[in-house]
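Task 17 of the worksheet. Students: predict the tertiary structure of the chain below and write it out as structure tokens. Keep your answer in the requested format; marks are given for formatting as well as content.
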Amino acid sequence: MNKKIWIYDIEIFPNFFSVIFIDRDSEETKEFIIYNKTNDLTALNKFIKTECYFLVGYNSSKYDNIIINFLIKKEQAYYNESTWDITAKLYELSQEIIDSQNGGKSIYWNSKLKPYLWTSYYLTIDLMSLMAFDKNKVSLKQAGIAMRWHKIQDLPKPFNEPVKDDEMKLIMDYNMNDVLMTKQLLMTVISELSIRKNVGEMYGVNLWSSSRSSVADKLMSKFWSDETRTEYKDFKELRTTYDSIKLSELISDKVKFKSKKLNDLLDTINNKILMPGNKFKQSVIIGESKYDMLLGGLHSNNPPMVVEEDSETELHDADFSSYYPYLMITLGAFPKHLSKVFLDLFKRLVEQRLEAKRKGNKVVANALKIVINSTYGKLNFEHGWLYDSKAAYKVTLNGQLFLFMLIEKLEKVGLKVYYANTDGFMTKVPKNRVEEYKKICKEFEDYVKIPLEFEKYSKCTIRDVNNFTMITSSGSIKEKGAFVRDMSVVSTFLRPNYTCSYDMPVIAKALYSYFHKNIPIENTIKANTDIYDFCKAQKIGGQYTAEYHTLNEAKTDLVINKCQKSNRYYVSTTQSKLYKKRKDTGKLADLCAGYNVELFNDYIDKKDYKINYSYYITVAQKIIDVMEPKQLKLF
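Model answer:
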């Protein structure tokens, strides 16, 4: 029998167990139940051992796989047990798994669970770990909302209550919905799996459930292990820590300024001593722009602006390529406990990536890009074996000071820089001075030995460093924050600090059309026929319950319905509201203060959704009002 790839999900109650599997490549479904007089334990174990090549789940490595492995190991012991006894033990195990992870703890330290963490009967993919959604506690429901899944459903009854016969279908429907949602997520992120398959096979490392950060960890650990002929256990606990850090010891001799203002800034930095837990922030005005220095990187801090090219000027963006990796190399920044051998290895990896990229070897180039770009972040990760905060600060401080040097050179000759962020900046350049601008940049590129990449923009709409939309001359678009039109699960994953939040994409679409196509916001909003674009989503905390208040059909009496914790809704003209209610005080808080909403957890096709267009127009207009009175007039 050919083994297959199955997507699956488990449900457990004190007297009930179910698991549903769906074949990745067809609609074939397998259901196994332990409840009342139904005991599919033997059939389930046979299925796992004979038909499963891969099991794909969501949070499965930290829950579902453990349950399956437990049942495989306990099959003989439970052969003559009653279904009640089996489900009672499964419920106890389920609670042990959940309790083991409370407060951010790890299941891997629980000796009761260790026998069931791994198995040789099947391979596994955990999509929650793969997408790093466990990092920000993104639930399957939140991922489903980002995928515009048609049915967003929380567990239909409390997990700690026994199941009744008439509730069984409801639970199985819920179980099936989660499996189908997981299958859709698998199909959505299939390109990420392709990367892990190719890279894992090339380097002999299991990466199936690894996030990009974890891919970097595993590959760098392998590279260091091979380089030093040591095992992971020999270096995994290594760290370099400091009681204090003199910033003067970190600044490169290449940092030199002309202006008194920037030399004063340099003196201030050189006189600082950082203690553990200290924050660092310095602000400076160069030309007509303000910049904030932080330990994590540089950000411009200017009023909202709209800047665009015209008949006399162009917008030029300059970004240092792989800035932090190159800074590590040029500054000699590496974890002190690993010696210069690590820096030599890192240089070689950068060279190998460039060579692979030149030859069109995408597998090697992509793998090494993930490793190289993640390495700097690991310098400041106190739980990792690359931890050395002094090396990390050496990179970020000098990186910002180098940017200031180049900005100073441009401003000195009258080329105005209006925006900067971490590794680059934008300049409005007169067309007759473009060659002068590029010459200054090229000379500085040679000075710091870090390559610059250039892009030309036609228009930039910037509310702040975290909210903007920028259009290149070739038509490609960069968006962030309130201006992001694509809230899909993949787009969310590719953005920093992703949480799968979903918040009215129609607003960002209206802003884009307004600023870049001169289309009135009300035109875009009223012309939009995609109900999902008007939806918001919210998951309430454990201290609350959710209530949906509406009127009966006669419009005479208030009807209050309890609803689930994760809710999708849109603002409507109907007479209904969504509240969260404190369990301890009973106090109600309107989830959309001052407006009525329509729940949209289940997709319903309507000719008229009774959308409150004025609400969406008002939200978009508030953003425009912030932008337009302060459009950039400086250049």
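Marker's comment: The chain has three domains: 4-188, 242-323+394-479, 484-635. The two ends are 72 Å apart (CA to CA).
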